């Protein structure tokens, strides 16, 4: 794994699972707001220090077309709103792009998920040394790991990941 730390305080089950699924698959992005706020409160309550350079796991073009929004971009904006006043330095966006479009991870087997690697993603330039990588749910960690691998190949030395939820072990 190319990630130093994953912050994922909520289990992907029950109400959390329902809110995320309704947001993503029933075009109700506002259902993510309470989960994003809980995540921000968790970070503040535990005095978790975050880097000032933030990157999102990019949504595929097909998912973006179907949903009409990018859930990780929404997370970026809302987390920035809640957390930037508590940061010592302004939060900066570090772009990451998909170079190869694949089917959504939730439709793929565990074995197929692990085939995802850094060649599926690209950065515009050299990236900062420490980056916060944002995704909605961590299941196998393969998406986060593939993105982190690309960021490291582009100059990052440390990757901290943050997600709304994690699947139960």
TrEMBL record:
Which Pfam family is one of those matched by this entry? Pribosyltran
Q: Which SUPFAM superfamilies match?
A: PRTase-like (SSF53271)
Q: Which residues form the Phosphoribosyltransferase domain?
A: 128-168
State the InterPro entries in the record: ComF/GntX_DNA_util-trans (IPR051910), PRTase-like (IPR029057), PRTase_dom (IPR000836)
Spell out the CDD domains in the cross-references.
PRTases_typeI
Which Gene3D superfamilies does the entry mention? 3.40.50.2020
Family classification: Belongs to the ComF/GntX family.
Concerning PANTHER family, the annotation shows: DNA UTILIZATION PROTEIN YHGH
What's the protein name? Answer: ComF family protein
């Amino acid at each position: 794994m190319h990630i130093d730390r994953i912050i994922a305080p909520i289990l992907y089950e029950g109400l959390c699972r329902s809110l995320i699924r309704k947001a993503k698959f029933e075009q109700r992005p506002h259902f993510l707001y309470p989960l994003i706020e809980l995540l921000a409160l968790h970070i503040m309550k535990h005095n978790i220090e975050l880097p000032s350079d933030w990157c999102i796991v990019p949504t595929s073009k097909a998912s973006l077309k179907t949903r009409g929004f990018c859930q990780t971009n929404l997370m970026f904006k809302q987390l920035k709103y809640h957390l930037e006043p508590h940061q010592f330095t302004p939060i900066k966006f570090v772009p990451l792009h998909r170079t190869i479009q694949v089917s959504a991870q939730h439709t793929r087997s565990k074995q197929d998920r692990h085939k995802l690697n850094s060649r599926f993603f690209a950065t515009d330039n050299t990236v900062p040394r420490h980056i916060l990588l944002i995704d909605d749910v961590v299941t196998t960690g393969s998406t986060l790991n593939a993105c982190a691998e690309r960021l490291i190949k582009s100059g990052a030395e440390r990757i901290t990941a943050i997600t709304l939820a994690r699947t139960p072990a």
